[in-house]
What we know:
Layout: E1 3-8, H1 14-30, E2 35-38, H2 42-54, E3 63-65, H3 69-75, H4 81-94, E4 97-100, E5 111-114, E6 128-133, H5 137-152, E7 157-161
Parallel strand pairs: 1-6, 1-7, 2-4, 2-5, 3-4, 5-6
Amino acid sequence: MTQIDFYVLTQTTAIARLHYACRLAEKGINQGHRIAIALDNEVQAQTLSDYLWSFKPESFLPHILQDNEPKQKALQHTSTSTENEVAIGDAKRQTPIALIWSEDNEHYHDILINLSQKIPEGFSRYRRAFEIVVQEEDCLKITRSHFQFYRERGYPLKSHALG
């Protein structure tokens, strides 16, 4: 059964939430995990993608966006469609972080970091799921409803209050 961890931050900003998600992802990568980060839409995914590039001045966190359709189209002029599909499939299998927003990613079932307003379908296939809470009214309301959802279904829950 999926272990659910809530990380409760004292900060109130969305950027604090993104920053902590990057810290969790970096820790997971260093431990050899594959991580999916769930977001509400492609715009949020692109924002997080940009942040993953600049999270630390000396490095970045390697990741892939769930929807590679634009990249596939851009590559089609230099290689066949089958070659593109193989290359993108290989990238998904090899890249430690996937940013997802509309469906579960078939290659990532180790750790889920949920930054979405909803609980992603397929969350129960992950070994662990992390929810990051900031002290902002909408975030508190959403993550409380997530906590209640998991608790009612008997998932093991842990809460970590962070300073």
